[in-house]
Amino acid sequence: MSIEAEVQTPNTPYYRLGGAPVFEAICDRFYDLMDEDPRYAELRAMHAPDLTPIRKALPQFLAGWAGGPRDWFEAIPGRCMMSVHKSLTIDQTVAVQWAEAMKRAVADVAPEPADMAQAMGEVLADLARGMGKA
Ligand code: HEM
Q1: Residue 123 maps to which CATH number?
Q2: Coiled-coil annotation: which residues (predicted)?
Q3: In terms of residue numbers, what domain contains 36?
């Protein structure tokens, strides 16, 4: 890659994993699994009937989180993971469901490089499990 191209495309997980199309595919797969697989029923029941808004929000959040465009964070300054979930009671059951569905979604979309994709899936799963109250 030329120096100019590197400056235009930062060497972050977001760009290395393929950017917006890949993050959108992971999140679509994640919400398809949540919507269709009964093993995520409790997690699904916590969400709004219409998943369209969160299908757009999660890839935008993950973009900023993984070193890509920060539109989600800039749209409402001060908004963060804690603030968007503060009204929710997240127990271990739903936290583990989130973690498992996300690991599956990443594995199903199978972005390259595979080791980086797997590491991202694990970190997101840890994050979700850490949000679950014992
Ligand atoms: C630990 C289990 C989790 C549960 C039970 C949970 C549940 C929810 C629920 C119910 C909503 C509201 C959306 C709706 O009503 O349809 C939401 C929003 C959201 N969650 Fe989670 N969540 C979890 C973990 C995570 C994790 C780990 C992330 C990010 C890595 C995340 C990112 C988001 C984002 C970006 C929104 C949308 C905020 C917005 O733009 O309005 N969540 N979550």
Answers
A1: 1.10.490.10
A2: none
A3: 3-131
